[in-house]
Amino acid sequence: MKNFFQVTAPDDVIAMANDFSPVKMEKIPLNQAHGRVLGMDFISPEDLPGFTRATMDGYAVKASSTFGASESGPAFLTIAGSVTMGDVPGFSVGPGQAARISTGAMLPDGTDAVVMIEHTQVLDDTTIEAYKSVAPGQHVILSNEDIARDQPALTAGTDIRSQEVGLLAALGCEAVTVFKKPVVSIISTGDEIVAVGQPLPPGKIRDVNAYTLAGFVTDAGGEPVCLGIVEDDFDKMLAVCRQALSQSDMVLISGGSSMGTRDLTVQVLAALPDTEVLVHGISISPGKPTILARAGNQPFWGLPGQITSAMVAFTAVVRPFVDRLAGRTRHRREAFRLSARLTRNVASVQGRVDYVRVRLEKRDDGLWAEPILGKSGLISTMVKADGLVAIGMHVEGMEKGDPVDVIAL
Amino acid sequence: MKNFFQVTAPDDVIAMANDFSPVKMEKIPLNQAHGRVLGMDFISPEDLPGFTRATMDGYAVKASSTFGASESGPAFLTIAGSVTMGDVPGFSVGPGQAARISTGAMLPDGTDAVVMIEHTQVLDDTTIEAYKSVAPGQHVILSNEDIARDQPALTAGTDIRSQEVGLLAALGCEAVTVFKKPVVSIISTGDEIVAVGQPLPPGKIRDVNAYTLAGFVTDAGGEPVCLGIVEDDFDKMLAVCRQALSQSDMVLISGGSSMGTRDLTVQVLAALPDTEVLVHGISISPGKPTILARAGNQPFWGLPGQITSAMVAFTAVVRPFVDRLAGRTRHRREAFRLSARLTRNVASVQGRVDYVRVRLEKRDDGLWAEPILGKSGLISTMVKADGLVAIGMHVEGMEKGDPVDVIAL
Lengths: 409, 409
Hints:
Two copies of one chain form a homodimer.
Chain A: H1 10-15, E1 25-29, E2 42-43, E3 53-54, E4 58-61, E5 75-83, E6 97-101, E7 113-116, E8 120-124, E9 127-130, E10 140-141, E11 152-154, H2 162-170, E12 175-179, E13 183-189, E14 193-194, E15 205-206, H3 208-219, E16 223-230, H4 234-247, E17 250-255, H5 259-271, E18 275-280, E19 284-285, E20 291-295, E21 298-303, H6 307-326, H7 332-335, E22 338-342, E23 346-347, E24 353-363, E25 366-371, H8 379-384, E26 387-391, E27 397-398, E28 403-408
Parallel strand pairs in A: 5-6, 13-16, 13-17, 14-15, 17-21, 19-24, 22-25
Antiparallel strand pairs in A: 1-12, 2-11, 3-10, 4-6, 4-7, 5-9, 8-9, 18-20, 20-21, 22-28, 23-27, 24-25, 24-26, 26-28
């Protein structure tokens, strides 16, 4: 019984993600690109901003015209004209001259800097005094200072956030090549599972898993497709698994805390073409009875029926596979793990990674992680949780005050 | 010039959010609730799990039948029957008896604990030995241990994540009352702004702001509606502002780094009914020339035309207003600010909050925030940034190694 599972370490499971290929790409309008993953390096077709512009209201000058200027010895400059944003100045500015300019406007020929209006005084219609010298390039953005033409402005695999959309808009990109969203089929199994809208007979439970896992898939950037509840029957399960594989990039089958359902999943996998079981049990808790198979080029997961275990397994090992399929190369999420300190001692078992649910609390001396009490199977503990703390394989527990990384939930 | 703005501190601006009311509610299907905000306390209509269930495979017993059991002196128990998941046991279990039970199955009458199968040995068809005693409630989840009937399972204003969806599914909730998504109208102004798909004449810039702000609104849980580009013309701006106010819950008008456009915005606000300017300039950098008005019950923002300034202003002061309109009560985002240490000294100006763009770097000794070089107006600096560090009003700068909070971008 104890040796039924030849368990795999979670890091080894995650490493297997690289054996699968990212999904195909598609070209979509820029206003739908937010939240997607860039498919190809974006080489800038032009310089940005494309012309040298003022970053302050003031006077455009050749910087050398102001050298040595001070409160006591201002530079006297002759006004050669005026430029506002959107204009193309129809004149040039010589040494000893200046042009009125507003923020964002194009610098006239002959100028390379802007004196802030606060550092000037108007003497008459054609003359000003400048009280401060400026260096070449001061208070201006050069024509290619933001992005240079023919240079990669964004690299493939980048998450497209609002600012990446903004950059693409600035460069006139109306359509962008992104990875498709990985389609993830979700199947619930078990004779004891009842659809949420149905009356609940005694002893049965509702199909919590499909709803919950769909949310996790969405958060990871995938597209969930729920295929409903399948009873513990070989032929029915085989049929729905075939359907799932034909229409998606990854399959999640969950249910069967019982050994029987797990066995059935393995039998179905054996009957599918070009399929091999890669992992049968993972050294995580909760979430140990997780199965990973390769079905063609698709990861096929058998997740625990217990929803809290399935959530932890998803967070610990499934999400990196969604990242891989989605084409994501930099994992910002990793950088964004929070550091906190434990409010209490936490026991743990060596030889497996224990995932402890925590609630975050901001105190004057920093962030604290409060382990949530309650049995592992209670969904209410996941609702109370802000995140998970992983207690390493070789650790026997952690003490109050120990620093920990928190994975957001 | 210097006193044109009577600037307001950002905390005072944020406090004004409470003067606005959350948007109306709507009832939506549970499978669309992920990412929304719960509108009303959800009182549980039933106990969860609804029956006392086993959390392990093993034998259901009355705990007292095992008291004193050990390896050397096992308890002998008579098998009274067997229960699997989904079954209603048709028998009861007396003292000295046990029922085979699988994980998730309902405990028979007369039992209050489960002995794990690992701690038992089968002697014959009707008798087992138990080597370990169990306490009442051990390896079971009580009928109402997850959620009790008539108790609030979730409170109004909660962000509905995957696990909240799961909890609602578990309780048979097919439709849920949520706050509507606040509709946020986005208007770009300025004669120098050109639509992204149009040819770009010299000196003009593309409409970066609408695309970028739409992303920020979406991330904050709002629904962006882009009303396009309006030139610097009083009548046209008045017309589009009226339209915006009639169809949304908040208005963002951006553009006009120039004083002229800002003046125009203020004139338009003066011409709108029941409207007052609350804030004319905020002590943040970048983002200082931000205007906030109340138009009826709607916040109306004039954001800087410079997109990087607009992004900072949105993050610093606009987002809390979206939270307020969206009905959000707990700000998980606040708890999730990262602690990092600065990789370099950063200068700052007293009397305003400086927002520094940083890239995060995970090192062996923790998270480090690397300030991003480059002029404030470069959109590429926002693309390189993982987050913002706010350098407080009364601080003159921070030193390398100083701990800072990072706001995710």
